[in-house]
Amino acid sequence: MDNWLANPYVETVANYSVVVLSLIVFLAIFEVVTKYKNWEEISKGNLSVAMATGGKVFGIANIFRYSIEHNDSILDMTIWGVYGFLLLLIGYFIFEFLTPRFKIDDEIQKDNRAVGFISMIISVGLSFVIGSGIG
Fold it and tell me: What is the rounded (10 degree) CA torsion for 74, 77, 78, 83?
């Protein structure tokens, strides 16, 4: 099996498959923890939700980029990717906690683009911090 995964084409497809599946699962988890329905809001043209969701997609993909770069096995890559996602999710809750003047989810659902933009930047920024610590 290891020889088979040593082929760079096979390894790339394996990594890609794991990341796409993880992305679907992780976005479903974000869908559960937010008050709004991401894809419904995006289909209505809510740019704030699109920015926040895009930041999460970028963040998850970036964490996996670091995980693929620093790990030799699919299992290790997946474990570090899941760990990084959990840290990103914690960052989401910290962002909500640190803004007591308004609710992040409510503002994003109301298409407050400033909040959507900062949410996107936080996800992207945290992904670089999380990724740099991946071993």
Answer: 160
Eight-class DSSP state of 124: H
Please write the tens of the pLDDT for every residue from 1-49: 557 767 889 999 999 999 999 999 999 999 999 999 999 999 999 999 9
Query: What are 68's two structure tokens?
Result: 């693929």
- DSSP letter (8 states) at residue 110: T
| Burial class for 61, CB neighbours closer than 10 Å (0-12, 13-18, 19+) | middle
Rounded distance, CA 78 to CA 134, Å? 12
**Average pLDDT estimate for 39-64:** 97
Instruction: Note the residue count of the chain.
Output: 135
